[in-house]
């Protein structure tokens, strides 16, 4: 820990060209990854600005994690449905999502459109 506390830290940050500000009244911070969400309620958020970048520090007593549903189909499944129904990969992926990965149902859904 630094001797002089907050004042000395501010001087050091000014010398390095960093500006630090508390962001008031933050209600929630959500961090999303491909497999989960981390929800931080009523955090303390500080922004540290440098020349071209910003660093955000999120501090809280607790947080909640939610697992996201990961698609249960592969790229090969998408290609198979696209070829079977004669559509592009985007439509095939949409049909697979709608049918929760059921290849036959996805093809039938696309062919009946």
Radius of gyration, taken over Cα atoms and rounded to an integer in Å: 24 Å
- Percent helix: 25-40%
Uncertain regions: pLDDT < 50 for 5+ in a row? Answer: none
Cα distance spanning the termini:
67 Å
- The total of helices stands at 4
The fraction of residues assigned to DSSP E strands is 25-35%
Helix and strand pattern: HEEEEEEHHH
Structure summary, number of beta strands = 6
Query: How would you characterize the largest beta sheet?
Result: 3 strands, antiparallel
Describe this structure in words.
It is a single chain. By secondary structure, this protein is an alpha+beta fold. The protein has helices at residues 5-15, 75-85, 89-98, 103-111, and strands at residues 19-23, 28-32, 36-41, 44-49, 54-59, 64-67. The protein has a 3-stranded antiparallel beta sheet with strand order 1-4-5, with helices on one face. It has a 3-stranded antiparallel beta sheet with strand order 2-3-6, with no helix packed on it. The longest helix has 11 residues, at 5-15. The radius of gyration is 24 Å and the shape is elongated.
